[in-house]
Amino acid sequence: MPKLTIFDCAIKHSSEACADRLASSLNFDYQLIRPPKEGLNNFKESTTTDLIIIFGSASNVEDRLKWQEELAEICYRQLKKGTPVLGLCFGHQLMADRFGGEVFKAEREFKGIRKVTITHSGFGLKKSEEFNLFVAHSFQVNPDRLGELKLLATSEDSPVDGLYHPELPYLGFQGHPEGSRLFYDRDISPDALLDEEDINLGLKDGLSLMASVLKSYLK
Q: 3-state DSSP helix/strand/coil percent for the chain, to nearest 5?
C-alpha cells in the first residue's frame, strides 16, 4: 500500500477528516504532520514517502512564517529527489511562491464551489476536462507571473486554478479537491450555503480529480 505524507497547514482545526476520506477511498496509508502546531521535526527526510500533499491554511504566503519557509524548502528538496508533491489551496500558493511566482490578495474572498477546466493533458487528467471543486481562498497566483510553473487549470473566478512544473513532479490546485463534508460544514457553509446536489458534486468531483492524479503517480 502506498505511504503518503500529508502536511496539514490548518491553523485552527485539523484536516484529518479530509485525509481520512482520501485514504479510505483511494486506498493508501499516510502520516499527518501539522507544521503550524508541531513544526516539521516529525518529518524525516530520509524516510521513504511515495507522495506529499500540502493542504490548505488560514495563513497566507505573505506572512513569511518560519514553518512556511521550511515546508517549502523540504518539499522542494523532495521534488529534486523525485518525490511527487501536490499542493492544494495554500499548498498551491506556497509552492508557486517557491518557484518564483507571485501570490496576491484577490479583490474578494471566494467560498463555495466552482467549475475548473483542465488546460493541459497529463497527470491522469485530460485537456478540457471539467471538475466542480470546493473553494475557500482570498489569495491567488498572478497569471502573468508563474515563475517556473505552467498553467494546468483555469476558471472564470481564478485564471490560475492549477499549475504544474514541466520538469519536476509537482502540480497544484487552487481549489479543495480533498474537501470532506466536515470541511464544507466548517469552512464554507457559514459563508456560502450550497444545496445538497452541489455539495455532493463537490465531493464527487474532488475525489475523482484526486483519484486520477494519485493513480498517475502511484502505479
A: 35, 30, 40
Q: Is 178 a catalytic residue?
A: yes
Catalytic-role residue among 92, 137, 165, 176:
176
Show pLDDT as tens, one digit a residue, over the chain (219 residues).
999 999 999 998 899 999 999 999 999 999 999 999 999 998 987 778 999 999 999 999 999 999 999 999 999 999 999 999 999 999 999 999 999 999 999 999 999 999 999 999 999 999 999 999 999 999 999 999 999 999 999 999 999 999 999 999 999 999 999 999 999 999 999 899 999 999 999 999 999 999 999 999 997
Task: Pick the catalytic residue from 18, 75, 89, 165.
Answer: 89
SS3 16: helix
Dist CA 184 CA 105 (whole Å)? 22
Q: Is 176 a catalytic residue?
A: yes
Q: For residues 93 and 61, is the Cβ–Cβ distance under 8 A?
A: yes
Residue 90: which of 114, 59, 127 has the closest Cα? Answer: 59
120 a catalytic residue:
no
What strands, in cross-sheet order, belong to the sheet with 51-54? 29-33, 3-7, 51-54, 85-88, 170-173, 162-164, 150-154, 103-118, 130-141
The whole-model pTM stands at: 0.97
Domains of the chain are 3-217 (3.40.50.880)
